[in-house]
Each structure stands twice: as structure tokens, then as C-alpha cells.
Amino acid sequence: MTTPDPSRLLPEVLAAVAATDAIVRDHWDKPRHVRLKGRIDLVTETDVTVERELTARLTRLLPGSTMLAEESAPGAELGAATWIVDPLDGTTNFAHKLPVVATSVGLWDGEGICLGVVSLPILHETFWAVRGKGAWTAPAPRLAGAERIHVTETGDLEQALVATGFPYGIREECADIVARLARVLPVARGVRRMGSAATDLAYTACGRMDAFYETSLKPWDTAAGWLLVEEAGGRVTRFAPAEPYYPGAPTLLASNGRVHDALEALLEL
């Protein structure tokens, strides 16, 4: 199928995400219904409800499209028009009532991500990008008065604030994660761990972070944020060494571009 102009889809995608933001906010002060799908990998009723609503809205918006979604279709293949959805990135944060949680929606058109939305429903922020049209933000749910966002101009790692994250397979990867952190910590101005890769990427795109790196991320963690960073003027690669990124790649480094090579050199073990 031919993917319609993503600029024309954007208002409806933003409306769909705004509707599910309301679900997250409604659930925020209610009891959590949490179950384990891995040793420390959680899923809540909110994850499932948001994903179900997004699936219905997005497939109706683009008939013939497919879904690659964390809870309902984690093993789906990328097609000519595939929605890549994380209904609640930062589920552990949500379970513990830490407000850094995000909904991430990316549209794959067979060549790359052409549309991406990251929304932080509890923090009332929405970020979005269309390929070739820049990256933008506005307070959610009011999307009027959007402002274009840009990565920072920081060129020295000593002045850089770097974000990172820890995968669910931390036991298996702990030695490499600690080794990389030991290299970055003494060099950077600071290192932050938000607990939501979609948030880290959005914050890198809008200049709150200078860079973000992590291993073992899934396509739904990164699809929308990847486009945000690139459309905000930044750079996204793998670690080894700075090879092109693809959905589900084993490593990800996103930055303002200016500190990219120096940081990549530290991350390459």
C-alpha cells in the first residue's frame, strides 16, 4: 500500500494520542493492576487499555496498515505502513507513581520512520515530527502554539548532560553497562537515568539533554524519538562504530551531533 502524506495524518495521530493521554491521567490516581512478563519487566492494565485504544484508532485512520506494538504484537514484521507503538514507556515509573512516562507512536513507511509522536501525559508535554518538516512541541492536550525544537550546540563532553538507561536484561549486561558508565561519568557534566527511552530521546531533541545512549532497546522504545532527534538536527547511530541505526538495533546513541564521535569512542568496548 502507498502511505498517505504523513503531514495529513498528523492531526489525527495527535488526537488519538491526546485521547489515550486522558486514559493515563485518569488511571494515575487509581490502584495499579500490575503483572510480570519478565523478571523485572512489568505490564499494567493501563498499558493494555492504551494500546487497545491506539490500535483501534490508528488502523482505522490508515486502513491496511499493520501494528508493531509492545503488548499485543511484539513480534510483528515491519511492512509498507506499520505503526510502531509503545503505549506506556516507563511502566515501572508508572507503577511507582513516578511521572516520567510516555506514549510513543511512530509510522514506518517501508523506508524509515516518517511520523513520530512522543507524549508525556502526566507532565503534559507532547513532541512530534514529520520527516523533512522539523520537530515540534506543545503543552498537552492543547496543541496550539507549537514551538519548533532543536538539539543543543554543546561541543564539549565536559559541558554535556548525558542520559542513559538500563535494560531488563541487566544481569546479563551488567559488566558492559558499568564499564561504559565508568567511562562516561568522569568526562560528562552529568549522567541522568529517566527510566523512559522515549522521554530521553524527546529531551535530547528539545535540548534538555545533549545525548542519550542505551543497549537492548526495542523498536517501540525508539521509533518516534529517533525521528524527533534527527528532525531536531541531531544524529542517531549504533555504537559500533557509529553505524546506521535501525529499529531494534542492539545499541543506540542519539546526540546533538557535536559530541557524538567523542561519546561513541567512550562507548565502544
List the helices and strands and how they pair.
Blueprint (H helix, E strand, L loop, with lengths): L5 H23 L5 E3 L5 E3 H17 L4 E4 L12 E8 L1 H5 L6 E7 L4 E8 L4 E6 L4 E5 L7 E3 L11 E4 L5 H15 L5 E3 L4 H9 L5 E5 L3 H13 L3 E3 L13 E5 L4 H8 L2
Parallel strand pairs: 3-4, 10-11, 10-12
Antiparallel strand pairs: 1-2, 4-5, 5-6, 6-7, 7-8, 8-9, 12-14, 13-14
Helix pairs in contact: 1-2, 5-6
The separation of the N and C termini measures 42 Å
Task: Kindly report the CATH topology of the largest domain.
Answer: Fructose-1,6-Bisphosphatase, Chain A, domain 1
- Lateral strand order in the biggest sheet: 3-4-5-6-7-8-9
Name the CATH superfamily assignment of the largest domain.
Fructose-1,6-Bisphosphatase, subunit A, domain 1
Mean pLDDT: 92
What is the β-strand count?
14
CATH architecture identity of the largest domain: 2-Layer Sandwich
Helices, by number, come to 7
**Number of domain units:** 2
The H-and-E topology, N to C, reads as HEEHEEHEEEEEEHEHEHEEH
Q: List segments where confidence is low: pLDDT < 50 over at least 5 consecutive residues.
A: none
